[in-house]
Amino acid sequence: MEWIGVIRHGESNGNVAREAAESAGDDVIDIAERDADVRLSPAGEQQGRALGRWFASMPHEQWPDLVVASPYRRALDTAALALRGHPRMLVDERLRDRELGVLDLLTTHGVANRYPDEVVRKRRLGKFYYRPPGGESWADVLLRLRSLLRDLDGQRVLLFAHEITPFLLRYLLEGLPERDMLAYAHHSTVPNGSLTSWRREDGAWSLEREFESDHLIEHGAEPTETEDATTRSA
């Protein structure tokens, strides 16, 4: 690879429901379907179509030669809207969002209210290594992402994934230390539909774009900064 980018999926119904639940102080996020089946919100669909117009305006030689999407519906639909008909579009489960186990569908308040012992355990272990019962730690997600990177065979690779993915790629590609990566994630929100990318020069990866979303505005959609529970609540 000489270039790799990641686009966070468009705003999802789950993002909207989480924002509403957190704002209301509820324990549980009101989502009927499983996480893998959550669809894009109307704003998310607009963001996906704006991505499609953006790619359509580019010369084809600037397109990625390999596209890999998370199997979760919100990421798949964003990829399809952005690059429908791309000759090399793959789906890989190693790009899926972090699994939260017993903390699934709980807000920050809900976790503290229902699983206070887990809050204490997370504080002791640290966010990077804390694994909710039945779920994954950030380190677990890194392991499958590291495995995926080893298998990619394109020169320009574009991933369609989740809010957590750009943070973990900074750790993997740039060697950002755990403490710095978590501090960076704590103070950052990845806009839906935004692009983060890296270029390899002299064998080392350097950050090229960070959470860029101007392409959405230019092509008729508003960026949103709704957060995922996988990076915030657990």
Automatic annotation (TrEMBL):
UniProt key word Endoplasmic reticulum: no
KW Hydrolase (keyword) present: no
Keywords from the named record: Glycolysis, Isomerase
Entries under InterPro entries matching the protein: His_Pase_superF_clade-1, His_PPase_superfam, PG/BPGM_mutase_AS, Phosphogly_mut1
GO molecular function: phosphoglycerate mutase activity
Pfam family of the protein (one): His_Phos_1
GO BP: glycolytic process
SUPFAM superfamilies, A to Z: Phosphoglycerate mutase-like
Assigned EC number: 5.4.2.11
PANTHER family: PHOSPHOGLYCERATE MUTASE
Family: Belongs to the phosphoglycerate mutase family. BPG-dependent PGAM subfamily.
Protein name listed in UniProt: phosphoglycerate mutase (2,3-diphosphoglycerate-dependent)
Lineage of source species: Bacteria, Bacillati, Actinomycetota, Actinomycetes, Pseudonocardiales
